[in-house]
Amino acid sequence: MAGMTSAVPPPNAPRPARPACDHCLALAADSRRREPHARLALKHTAPLVSRSAAGVPFSMLTFTCRECGTVWRLYDRANELFVSWVPECPLAPRGPAAPGGVADRIK
């Protein structure tokens, strides 16, 4: 099997930036707000419940933007006032020639 390479990038490999809609860029700028924007769709109904390396319990929900396809993870730690919205990959503003997003393909 010499010469074969994995299709999975190494964990420390830089991920390419994803063109994001204005709503996702605003969420990235204010990642501690509790309400998702209206274009986010919940992927799973049950949160993933786990503990951090420090032993702090947290729950995670996954959302996908209907407009640009960005995947978001919402982390909510026990007894914390704020939450954290984390995009699955780095975000970049859309260029003028960028496609309209995945919303048209989802319908």
Write structural notes for this entry.
With about 110 residues, this protein is mainly beta. The protein contains 2 helices and 7 strands. A hairpin with a 5-residue loop joins strand 4 (about 55-65) and strand 5. It is elongated. The N and C termini lie far apart (about 40 Å).
SSE layout and pairing:
Blueprint: E1 18-20, H1 22-29, E2 40-42, E3 48-51, E4 57-65, E5 71-77, E6 84-87, E7 91-93, H2 103-106
Parallel strand pairs: 1-7
Antiparallel strand pairs: 2-4, 3-4, 4-5, 5-6
Q: What is the N-to-C succession of helices and strands?
A: EHEEEEEEH
Q: How many strands appear in the DSSP assignment?
A: 7
Q: Which structural class is indicated by helix and strand composition?
A: mainly beta
Q: Could you give the distance between the termini?
A: 42 Å
Overall outline: elongated
Brief description of this entry?
This protein is mostly beta strands and 107 residues long. Helix content is 11%, strand content 31%.
List keywords for this structure.
about 110 residues; mainly beta; five-stranded antiparallel β-sheet; two-stranded parallel sheet; 2 helices; 7 strands; about 10% helix; disordered C terminus
